[in-house]
Design brief:
Helices cover 35% and strands 14% of the residues. With 338 residues, it is α/β, with parallel strands linked by helices. It has a seven-stranded parallel β-sheet with strand order 8-7-6-9-10-11-12, with helices on one face. A five-stranded parallel β-sheet has the order 2-1-3-4-5, with helices on both faces. Helix 11 links the parallel strand 9 and strand 10. The two termini are 25 Å apart. This is D-3-phosphoglycerate dehydrogenase. It is an enzyme of class 1 (oxidoreductase).
Amino acid sequence: MIHDIIQGVEHGRRGRRILVSHNQIAEKAIRLLNAHDIDVFFSPPYDPSDVVAKRAADLKIDGLMVRQGRIDEAVISASPNLKVIAKHGVGVDNVDIAAAAKLGIPVLRAMGSNSRAVAEHTIALVLSLIKEILPLDRAVKSGEWPKPTFIGKDFLGATIGLVGYGGIGRETARMAESLGMEVVVCDPFAPDAAEADGFATSDDIDAMLPALDILSIHCPLTAATRDLIDARRLAMMKNSAVLVNTARGGIVNEAALAEALAAGNVAGAALDSFATEPPAVDNPLWAFNTLIATPHIGGVTYGSADAMAIIAAQHIISVLDGNAPDERSIARPTELSA
């Protein structure tokens, strides 16, 4: 693979180069970058950091667009020409922000690019859990017919608690309300935003949990939110409640969740992200038919993929053209690094 990339360099026609930590990005973004004198090269997702670092060094990249895999200090320091890192999305827990800051390299997020997509996926998972779609599907396919004894749950009037009220949380709240759910929000960094939108708020997640039918996570992974939903907090939930995490793995303690599902302390859970990605094939969570797992694709739709790539490309172009990085999009070293 490295040979192929070096060949690509030999045929490069433009004055600047970026590396994308994936096999592809939207064609519109590639055309935009090419039009601004930037060649685009690709590094397969989840390749080891030392392999990605060698590619960055061999290419002498000016910019890095991050999709998947860990971007650590070795990758960030590999090319002396590197001036900007742009995330193809908004979560930056796979980037060593502190290492980038030490080298004066801004890390920029594609803010708002996938809010609608992640909110849609969240609601799809919520409804699948409440309506017990997965257990019913498996029962019928295994030859059972639970119709005589099954009584479904209503989502009309169900209370959904959102931890985090950024762009995704706001979209999720609106969708949940339109379906007849009661929404309550806990976000210490946006105490007035949810109330301004007409939603109830809670200053304390512990106080909120016992009343919830659904808990949905929409906060970033930071030192403060790692293991935010642990055994103690899972025990505070109704045993009829369900949990959805379309934010970041590590916010929900997976071992504690497995124990809660085994004990019947929660009725079900849906995870679109995991502490280690891809998760292990023997993950204890796989034992439960009340657990829905999707491969961190909540924000990946045709529309959001175009938006994420184009916004990331615009950040790269702007910085390489000598402009100051967009202040609203900068990931600060105070956030959790990889």
